[in-house]
Amino acid sequence: MSQKQIKRMQSDTDVKRKAIKQVVGHIKKKITSEYVGSDHLMDWITQIEEILAKDEFIIRDYIQARKSLNDIIERTLDEEMRFKLRDSWFSLGKALEKKAKVN
Question: pLDDT tens digit string along 31-71?
């Protein structure tokens, strides 16, 4: 078999990390300079990226990060931005529940 024919089996952790990275990417796109809480959100992004960079996948770290994002959302005065971030919060929860496809 050639290298191309050998597929690496994805674990649940791989799938979750990929989904979380996508959510973080979408959040980055939503941040505007006019958003008053953008500095808090940028700090949160730094925090979640540090968690993603770790070799081990500790679910409680991600759950704590999701709670922190919820705190930021609750303090967001801009209603439109709050709704956008709330969508991301739900997506982050779904990402944490993802499982690898079993063939």
Answer: 877 778 788 999 999 999 999 999 999 999 999 999 999 99
Residue 93's contacts (CB-CB under 8 Å, 6 or more residues apart) are: 66
Q: Cα 84 from chain centroid?
A: 14
> For the chain, what are the domain ranges?
12-97
Residue 31: is it exposed, middle or buried by C-beta count within 10 angstroms (0-12/13-18/19+)? Answer: middle
Rounded to whole angstroms, how far apart are CA atoms 67 and 17? 17
d(Cα 53, Cα 33) in Å, to the nearest integer? Answer: 26
Integer angstrom CA distances of residue 2 from 5, 7, 10, 37, 96: 5, 10, 19, 51, 34
Distances (CA, A) of 100 to 10, 14, 17, 19, 86: 6, 8, 11, 11, 25
pTM of the model: 0.83
